[in-house]
Predict the structure.
Amino acid sequence: MPKMDDLRDKYIDLISAAGDEAALEELRVQAVGKKGEISLQMRSLGKMSPEERQVMGPKLNALKDEINAALAAKKAALADAALNERLKAEWLDVTLPGRTRRQGTIHPVSQVWEECTAIFADMGFAVAEGPQVEEDWYNFDALNIPGHHPARAEMDTFYMHRAEGDERPPHVLRTHTSPVQIRSLQAHGAPIRIVAPGRVYRADYDQTHTPMFHQIEGLAIDKDISMANLKWVLEEFFSAYFGTSVKTRFRASHFPFTEPSAEVDIQCQWKDGSVVVGEGDDWLEVLGSGMVHPKVLEAGGIDPNEWQGFAFGMGIDRIAMLKYGIPDLRAFFDSDLRWLRNYGFASLDVPTIRGGLSR
Ligand code: PHE
């Protein structure tokens, strides 16, 4: 029979070295299970003399208790360690602030596009559209700009590629929204009152020009529309758009597709890197306009002896610069949210066409 102290030392060591609950359970069976080493010794008490039994009995009981207590303590220690491991792995600081999401904002050009359309809609103008890749005829010829006309060169046109051997005139990226005048007249005839906002393209790049920009075309044709109506509509538009009356300047000008023609400038001032409307002695050209040329009416399929009216083409980006004090047009197309915030674009704060009009 192994000596009791050896037995004790062996199990106490094994228990303290046990790595997990399964190993501990094995030790328990081995020591104090039914056929465990200590249990077997207790069973052998019956074969001892009463004197021996009196000494060995309490000793064995004490040993069994000690082993059981060591097993229980180790079990608790293992459970603690496991819990600590888990807490470390699953650690979560519920007091941290939540992740904020960056909020998108409408682009100033989109906002102004919608504002313009809404104001003209109030004056009875419907919205029309045309393609951005346009036939040469709609962009030029129909607007009284024949092949040799200098306006073709002046407009810095982007020409589309033609397959080799294809002798037709190349399509162009429309240089203005005026081709929509022709398309609308062809589709609807007269009388007509439309605006056509959209993208236009010219090979030009500086502080007030970008190769892609936006225009809104206006066209009003009826029996007796005059230059006076044009002036009223535009002045009405500007005071609605800027929310106050601003000084405008109508300058005699020339376009092949209007006669007479006028360009309109808005009074403004460049001040501390931004542009302010309604003061100062600078003028920013914002649109071209005039009475629609008889040849244009003819190209649109209506009789110039019966119908007359005005047209205008306004730079959406230009009037966006003026309203929001943005000095460089290029900033519209290579900037981000921080830049927009700088100019006060937090979110859409005007009624949108898509969301329904509430004016
Ligand atoms: N299409 C002209 C431009 O882009 C503007 C314009 C439109 C002028 C309509 C007169 C009438 O400059």
In short: Confidence is low (pLDDT under 50) at residues 347-359. DSSP finds twelve helices and ten strands in the chain.
